[in-house]
Amino acid sequence: MPDKPRTDRTESEESRRSAEGSGQRADSATASLQPSAPSPQHALATRIQERLQAIREGRLERSLQPPSGIDFSSNDYLGLSTHPRVVQAMIDAIEREGVGSTGSRLLRGERQAFADIERRFAAFKGAERALYFSSGYLANLAVLTTFVEGGDVIHSDSRNHASLIDAGRLSSAKRIVFPHKDAGALAQLLSRPPSSGHTFVVTESLFSMDGDVPPLAEYDDLCRQHGATLIVDEAHAVGIYGTRGSGLLEEYGIEHGNCLSINTAGKALGVSGAFVAGPAWAIDYLIQRARPFIFTTAAPPAVAAAIGASLDVIAAEPERRSRLLDRVKRLRAMMAASGLPVPAFFSQIVPLVVGENERALDTAAALQAQGFDVRAIRPPSVAPGSARLRISVNVTLTDDAIDSFVRALAAVVGVGAIGGISPGSLSWSAASS
What we know:
Aspartate Aminotransferase, domain 1; 13% strand; alpha/beta; Aspartate Aminotransferase, domain 2; 3-stranded antiparallel sheet; 2 domains; 7-stranded mixed sheet
């Protein structure tokens, strides 16, 4: 008969198994007493909470605040975001095209509306071609990461917008920051060309936080003399300046043959997105190589229709631009009469530098409580110690609104109706950033 399975164990086997079991239980108990390492999520949360606390202590915390009160802060300079013609154009286009583009423009996101508005915008700017991007940030990113290569040099104004700074950082070029609006310093830099590669000069045409304009004609001459390419962000100028309203390049007679411009459609044009305008070869290359263009879903096609309507209004109602400049004149005159500092350069952006972050926040809050929507601008948007109110003028402001705002502003910052500025050294010029 076959042997039966053994069910008995020797004493030594039982002792060994018992000892192993005891050891495992002891190890488990010891492990449970040891502190566990923090999870990666916990470690990250702790670090971020420390960063947030530092932001709060520096009075740099941001909050999302919808519009409320009379608009002294938006970039809707011509009031086109609510113009009936622009609004209706978008409604009609949504009914035709739907609300989404469904893909990138190199896939199924292309529409005839995009090609049409690009041709029209190029003509508006006096350029051979234009290419539409979903935002100005993406457009700046595309230009400086597509055309700029290793061995190239970027000369960038010290107060350029963050999107231009970030784009330069992401490029493979050497970056040199030159003093704000200093054509002499730029000339010296351009006299020392790179040993290899190409040179680019990057500037805004109307600086968003200071409201001033660089010597664009001198920059253009310098670039031509030294074989450099001029790149100009016209975000706050397009729609307002020049005979056609196409921007400060038109105002100063600078052609796109040696220049690329980035033109936001979400400010004076009242819609969204941005156009890069320039020679045909440049636009062809962006379509082939610009990652922010290739690898993103196209904007809703209805946006193109709305931008077209905005261009119609700018052409048909030039008095809007005249009225905007009239509103600026009134604000500046009222500020001067109230003893408030007035910027030397004339534009629809009127900064009032108060210095400390807390003072800027408190001043803005006091004005908001009186029904005026003006916002405090703090680092990193401006240099430390140059926190300010960025007063933005638009065509919808009435005489009474401007006068009431300036009276409230003078009272809040401690300036008498006739007297000078009280201690606190208000200023209009920002420190270099």
